[in-house]
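Late entry, evening session. Most of the bench is empty. Finally got around to the prediction I had been postponing all week. Sequence below, unchanged from the version circulated by S.P.
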Amino acid sequence: MWRAAAWLLAGTLIALASLAALLAMVAGALEVGLLRSLLAYAALFVGVFIALGGILRFLRAG
């Protein structure tokens, strides 16, 4: 059960960090570049799927 919580927490933190970077780019606080925005979107995508994996582990464990 704690592994599922760790997966969910890790995925959520990755997704929130990349979302914060994307919002900083939109607000103009962070320089916008193609590679930087692609990496932020990729990290958001990966973070969401890691969090989904944690949710699925919760469902299987419970």
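Two things to note before I forget:
The chain has a mean pLDDT of 94.
The radius of gyration is 14 Å.
Will write this up properly tomorrow.
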